[in-house]
Amino acid sequence: MDMKDLDQFEKATISGRSEMSRFSMALLFIIGIMVYSSTFIQGVPGGTLLMVAAMIGGYMAINIGANDVANNVGPAVGSKTLTLTGAIIIAVIFEAAGALVAGGEVVDTIKKGIIDPSLIGDTNTFIWVMMGALLAGAVWLNIATALGAPVSTTHSIVGGVLGAGIAAGGMDIANWSKMGQIAASWIISPVMGAIIAATFLYLIKRTITYQQDMATAAARMVPIFVSFMIWAFGTYLMLKGLKKIWAVDFLEAIAIGFAIAVAAYFVILRPRIGRAAARMKNTKESVNQLFSIPLIFAAAMLSFAHGANDVANAIGPLAAINDAVLKGAIVAKAAIPLWVMLVGAIGISLGLALYGPKLIRTVGSEITELDQSRAFCVAMAASITVIIATHFGLPVSSTHIAVGGIFGIGFLREYLKTSHAKRIHEIKDHHHGEDEKLIEDYLDNFEQASLPEKSAMLDKLKKNSKASTLNKKERKSLNKIYRTELVKRTALLKIAAAWIITVPASGILAAIFYFTIRGIMV
């Protein structure tokens, strides 16, 4: 065996040890849940089921942290605003804070009301349904994470509850109108995220990076964009992150968020960003730096809201099982004991720290290239889409929104680059046969011109040009020549496929697990 083979063997061994270390820590957490829960189940009828459910809940929480949290911090890592370690630390702190501070005291036992619990025969059957759903959601998330596909944890548990519920009570148990809304969200969420993110990026380009004096434009526009972000995130947190400890209606949240944003604009943003812009170079990279701190803030707030809301995906079924075991009844809303909340909060944080980097890299850099301004637009899309959806009662997924926003940014950049390449072709074609130096000078003037000047130059060219002799087929061929792919199509297909099969896959798994559990218990 030569030195090269030894080196490869050593790298493989190190990778294996690292994977075993992560697995061991996750296993210790689940064993710890088993040991702790065993201390208060003695003498409780069905206590063993509760202990097993707690372990499954911990497993689910780990997988939520591994898969779902990447959407909150991935763009900040991909844009190099945060290091991977820094992003994980911020996400762990704010995810746990959101779960423990704003997670609420009760939780819906049937997520999204997709099945009718009154059609479930007895308490034991209900417990088996919840256990099957929880285990199915966790296993599907584990598979998706291993494949590098960011999927909706809400859809995972919804599919699990639906599949196990149908297995226990038949097709009539399902609320198919609710399922129709959830299926519609597969399109609504990413499309809304893509449109809003692309719109903000286009506005940033038009008002700042396409300007001749980018520093002056940034001093004027960046405080406005960041103020809009504060307004959006203030409203978002009140409607989603803090709703269980501070209930405000939609208009109140909008008004309070607006007042905070206006105050921040005049007191903090305009003077500080103005001073920073006055010292910066007239480059796009310098403009991007102005979005760094707002982007870190956005990652923290998204993590807090996610912890407050999506911890229910791990602890909702567990809280339902806890109530069913202790009270012997099926309830629509279950109280959340502190130990159940800690299982969710700690599990999500641990899953993020151990297995989150894979999906963070996928979201941050493996779909399209992100910089600070582009990542800022993704964060804006995440908050604004949820606000709109909340107002109109639309079911949306934060995962689908964020990833859709990234795709939207990538496709917008493809369109702009292709359009620019075609314009350069038109200019060269118009000057065909002229002196090469004259053509280069014209192109230099065109590149440095302002947007109105560029438009005037192109209009003048069109007026002086002969009518196009290209047919439809030739024009399509020209589009293909200058098309620039900035979005990885393989990533698009993989993620879209994972989204489509999430509910059916977790549903089938849940039905299998339900019948297995019932077979063991009966």
Describe what this molecule looks like in 3D.
- 79% of the residues lie in helices and 1% in strands.
- The protein has 522 residues and is mostly helical.
- It has one domain (24-414, 487-521).
- Strands 1-2 form a two-stranded antiparallel sheet.
- The N and C termini lie far apart (57 Å).
- The mean pLDDT is 86.
Largest sheet: 2 strands, antiparallel
- The poorly predicted ranges are none
Overall pLDDT level: 86
Number of strands: 2
Overview in brief:
The chain has helices at residues 3-37, 47-67, 70-78, 84-102, 123-147, 153-169, 176-209, 214-241, 250-279, 284-289, 292-327, 338-365, 372-392, 398-430, 436-448, 451-464, 472-482, 489-521, and strands spanning 106-108, 333-335.
Secondary structure elements and their pairing?
Elements: H1 3-37, H2 47-67, H3 70-78, H4 84-102, E1 106-108, H5 123-147, H6 153-169, H7 176-209, H8 214-241, H9 250-279, H10 284-289, H11 292-327, E2 333-335, H12 338-365, H13 372-392, H14 398-430, H15 436-448, H16 451-464, H17 472-482, H18 489-521
Antiparallel strand pairs: 1-2
